[in-house]
Model the fold of this input.
Amino acid sequence: MNWDDIRIFLAIARSGQILAASRRLGVNHATLSRRLTMLETALQTRLFVRRTHGCELTAEGEIFLTSAERMETEMLAAQASLGRPDTAIAGTVRIGAPDGFGVSFLAPRIGKLIERHPQLKIQLVPVPRSFSLSLREADIAITLQQPDQGRLVSSKLTDYTLGLYASKSYVDLHGMPEDAEALKRHRRIGYVDDLIFSPSLDFTGEVMRNWDAGFEISSAIGQLEAVRSGAGICILHNYVARQYPDLVRVMPQTTIHRTYWTSYHESQRDLARIRTVVDFLQDAVGTARQIFV
Done:
């Protein structure tokens, strides 16, 4: 069995499309399609149902995916032990992160990593959604909960806190609520309920039973800008909100605690570029630990 065919199978399985896999591997899509057919012939089984909008793994394909990922892990380990190029700090690493952390904390710091390693290319995807590491939607994911499924390597990045904030202009017009009962009489900003991708983002229940926001935004950065505009009161990350002198803390006795986790697929454990980026994340957060309190 040809290892390149296994790589092609993994790329298609993770992207869900032959065309997307061809772009990722830099191989003509017709060639990929032909190599996939050759692999299926060699295995005497159908690995994908090919549709106009993409490829869907068959039951046999799901089983083979597990074996293929084990092969990938062994191949990467062998390359690392032999000093192959995969041990170089070069290539592309995609980081998936919540938008608040990705935009406000990571984006201003990633430049230092690129300066140290010019052959390293970082793709930062700071959007309010979850990422599948098994499907390679990201190489490294920063999450609000420790993953409990999949062959992942995860570690705690940092604890952090959130609090209630309003703009100074809002408080001047509407006053400062002192407790949850008074907060009911104020305009509130929150997440779009059916777009909350993690239970950890459901902050409002820790403040009051029915938040009932008049303005819902499925982005932490969007919420920040709405608060700054005077649109209402919202739960914001303390390490972000403290950067803006036009914001004031509301009900400072109320503090919400959460944790960020870093995870990557175990098949990438021996890749120097992955280890380098994970170490950088840990160092960057460790250096700035005080802002997350």
About this structure: Residues 5 and 35 are 6 Å apart (CA to CA). The domain at 86-158+259-292 is CATH 3.40.190.10 (D-Maltodextrin-Binding Protein; domain 2).
